[in-house]
Amino acid sequence: MTKIDSKIPEGKLAEKWTNYKNHQKLVNPSNKRRLDIIVVGTGLAGASAAASLGEMGFKVLNFCIQDSPRRAHSIAAQGGINAAKNYTNDGDSVYRLFYDTIKGGDYRSRESNVYRLAEVSNAIIDQCVAQGVPFARDYGGSLDNRSFGGAQVSRTFYAKGQTGQQLLLGAYSALSRQINKGTVELYTRYEMMDLVIIDGRARGIIVRNLVTGKLERFAAHAVVIGTGGYSNSYFLSTNAMSCNVSAPIQCYKKGAYFANPAYVQIHPTCIPVHGDKQSKLTLMSESLRNDGRIWVPKKLEDAKAIQAGKLKPTDIPDEDRDFYLERRYPAFGNLVPRDVASRAAKERCDAGFGVNETGLAVFLDFKYAIERLGAEAVEARYGNLFQMYEEITDQNPYKTPMMIFPAIHYTMGGIWVDYELMTSIPGLFAIGECNFSDHGANRLGASALMQGLADGYFVLPYTIQNYLSDQISVPRFSTDLPEFETAEKSVYDMMKKLMNVKGKRTVDSIHKEFGLILWECVGMGRTKKGLEQAIVRIDEIRKEFWSNVFIPGELDDMNPELEKAIRVANFIDMGQLMAYDALNREESCGGHFREEYQTEEGEAKRDDKDFMYVSCWNYQGEDKKPELLKEELVYEETEVKTRNYKV
Amino acid sequence: MWLNNSSIGRKLVMSVTGLALILFLTFHMAMNLVALFSVEGYNMVCEFLGANWYAVVATMGLAALFVIHIVYAFWLTLQNYKARGNDRYAVTDRPKSVEWSSQNMLVLGVIVLLGIGLHLVHFWSKMMLVELTNGKEFVINGNAISPTDGAALIRYTFSQWYNVVLYLIWIAAIWFHLNHGFWSAFQTIGWNNKVWQSRLQTISLWYTTILCLGFAAVVILFGAGIL
Amino acid sequence: MDKNISFTLKVWRQRGPKAKGEFKEYPMKDISGGTSFLEMLDILNEELVGKGEEPIVFDHDCREGICGMCSLYVNGHPHGPEGGVTTCQLFMRKFKDGETITVEPWRSAGFPVIRDLMVDRTAYDTIMQAGGYVSVNTGAPQDANATPISKEIADEAMDSASCIGCGACVAACKNGSAMLFVSAKVSQLAILPQGQVERVRRAKAMVAKMDELGFGNCTNTRACEAECPKNITISNIARLNREFISAKCKD
Lengths: 647, 227, 251
Fold this sequence. Notes:
The complex is a heterotrimer.
Chain A: H1 16-23, H2 29-32, E1 36-40, H3 44-56, E2 59-63, E3 81-82, H4 94-104, H5 111-131, E4 145-147, E5 154-157, H6 163-181, E6 184-187, E7 190-198, E8 201-209, E9 215-219, E10 222-225, H7 246-253, E11 258-259, E12 264-270, E13 293-297, H8 300-307, E14 321-322, H9 324-328, H10 338-350, E15 362-365, H11 367-373, H12 375-393, E16 402-411, E17 414-415, E18 428-430, H13 448-468, H14 482-501, H15 507-521, H16 528-548, H17 560-584, H18 608-611, E19 613-618, E20 627-632
Parallel strand pairs in A: 1-2, 1-10, 2-6, 10-18
Antiparallel strand pairs in A: 3-5, 4-5, 7-8, 8-9, 11-17, 11-19, 12-16, 13-14, 13-15, 15-16, 19-20
Helix pairs in contact in A: 3-6, 3-13, 4-5, 5-13, 11-12, 15-16, 15-17, 16-17
Chain B: H1 2-5, H2 7-37, H3 39-49, H4 53-83, H5 105-122, H6 128-132, E1 138-140, E2 143-145, H7 150-157, H8 161-189, H9 194-223
Antiparallel strand pairs in B: 1-2
Chain C: E1 4-13, E2 22-32, H1 37-50, E3 72-74, E4 77-78, E5 100-105, E6 113-115, E7 118-119, H2 122-129, H3 151-161, H4 168-172, H5 179-191, H6 199-212, H7 223-227, H8 235-250
Parallel strand pairs in C: 1-5
Antiparallel strand pairs in C: 1-2, 3-4, 3-5, 6-7
Helix pairs in contact in C: 2-6, 3-5, 5-6, 5-8, 6-8
């Protein structure tokens, strides 16, 4: 069996990153000009990496799927970004941020990576402030903090409810500066189709120009993908419409291990599904849980009456309300981590206490906050979110409780990377949500922004040099090489095959059907039987897709239906990989909940003896089950405990 | 030169010339008001200005302001028309907070310009121009009128009903043009912010309304034969 | 509960930048009021694809009003008649049964049509590249709290910074002017201490690029702020004017 080498540096946990930086190989400035790096994606990770690499003097080719780098989906993050600044003097430290993240990830993440993340978190805030990111401030002029799920300190920095937007615009401005200087070349409305490998190293990509529909080739000394997660496999998720998993899946098929695909985060505070025509789900910031109280009726008959529209939520007196999070988790209350909150909501709805007409929603009530703080203070904190909610649902959250339900939001799994963020293909790096690295089995709120920017600003620009230092004598590659030829042809053939199916079903109709299978079987509660069924049903869907899909338009012209079809083909492969991993992992941890493995109280039950590893899936070919490799997780500094948010 | 080759520069020229013209209108209106109280007083003003060197210089300056304002207006409008692209919207709808006048400044400007033409024929050609060309007096309905007898000229001009109508239309166009132009000029210079936006618009409304009422009063009172 | 409505959709179809476009009408039946405008277009596209026709091309991505990708001119307004929202946040309950809804692309020389309702807004990126940043390298800047910034300034900068770059201001402006967009960025960085060093250069460079790209001259009609989905105000434009004029006077 292949041995997995995660290249964790020697030394004590707190010294590893410093040691690494002191001893890694560097590339001198005159040589940097001769090295090309492809960065796919312009989200927090991609844009910050492209900008930083450009500043250092590398020649960077940066690709994005939207019409502008500023539209990457990082922009939609609302709540905030964590850092161990301890500005609020509540006892925070790098170690505590590290510890909370490890614990939040249910002891399924790599200690060394997480410690490094906590270490660089402070520099991110400094960097962003220097760029002119308008973080919220208090009257004294200092940065303001708020608390988030899974932590007992206030360490979250925020810019209204648009933190992701402001951080992305910061990275985008740094990127714009480099484009102006000519160190970064930007390609918008391009989608990565395949990875090109020459002599075992990643040396280029095949992309599709979404405006002309033509395939194009780009070569470089190293390839970095920062293309986000795979939530859209489920069809309905909080991700943007163009978020897709094609780039990681193509890398996986070229030999990059896919790690922990089963770890999917279900966000507890989304607006419930309203009909079968819905295209995506809308997230309400987790920060709402700071002041909102979550409840369902205590009496089943009340719940039924609400579902039937005979009773209004405001009709139910306090003593008949079940604040189930406060009841079950007194210490953290409404601020338990996302996976715990989501599962608790599912548990109540499964028991019949759900509150909208489908029975798939719970209340998030601001009545108490308004009584305590006044409507004005609540408006100042959450005004824009309330407005958004009212716009979508036509209900006024100041007067009646909001209704929320969990939805697929983020994927902790991703392309496997070592300490240097390099995948198992030399020269191919993965950053941001696209890699599996730092969140283990569950991500804490406000940590995604931190990880994306840590990877892009402060980790990759260093570690990539360790790889490139011996590439300085390698001349630039021609895109006429046979490897490019073959890769482009295989993409073209795949598209041609899709166009030639000429079946009867639209891409979306198949995607929706597939998404429902995933949500049922590989969603919040998973069972052995369900997963085994899912694998078979996904095979059937794949056959249906490749034999009955219909795509209008031309192959080599702009064709949004063809774009969607290519993405769905990859989502289907991704879904199956998720099912394999979920089936293999016979324990419950973080976002992965196997119903067979729970405590009597319904909490997740880990199996540290048999499953304290990262599952790395190694592609074996079409129609073959991928090979499972294991990266054992070793905890040197932290005592592995059962997560407990009760006391 | 940045006043020519930057959009803000060109707008600054519009704004400064516009404000200067508003200032001129203010003086003009003040002088007109004299006629409401004292015909002799008004004629004294006319005599004081007449075709004296300072009045001629000021008139030339004024003409230059007009020409610059008008040339830039056409230039900007042409550029803006091009910037709109080849296809036009099939459906357009003006949001409530957008003044009608703000989107029709050129049309209003052209009406104002035609009015000025008429006004020059009615008054300037019979006053300053006559003096400059050494004409002594002119004859209306058999009566000889001195070029400095402005009051008589006013009385004569507005004794024709269609002139009253034309002048009122003209003044209305000026009202619309200035109502937007006034605060807009401050905005272009940069003397505006969130607080002053509504203040400036209110000042703009009052100022132009008083200005135009002043002008209209002369037209109406003389036209109605009250004075 | 939301009622269902039926209406006629009049959509601009145009094959490419040079091709001649025209309106096509599509009858829509029983659309739930809780459907978003873009979901309604999805429904139509599903029908079109089902009939073997090519779907209507339009830009869209996050569908929660923050990415700035969606760009439809609906019934005479960018992002539709509803104020303070993007097209993706516009819901069908805001329309009447039986009405005709006209959907057009942004029309401006600065934003050429790519296909149907999709336009090219690269010009905005180009303007940003001319100077919409603080020149600070990744590394170790001073501590984030080293320079205090008053809450008022931070909040005001945030208001300016909330621009999503959708282009509605240009689409709404009869002059095709990009002043609201440019001024929002210039304002944000002009009032924050971090932006001071490059303040003069930035205002000049961004305005010069904006002019070069063929956007029109601002005539203060205020249509941009009325249609801006993020309620960016023209006080930003006043500030940009101030910044630019004083920068030029210093030359």
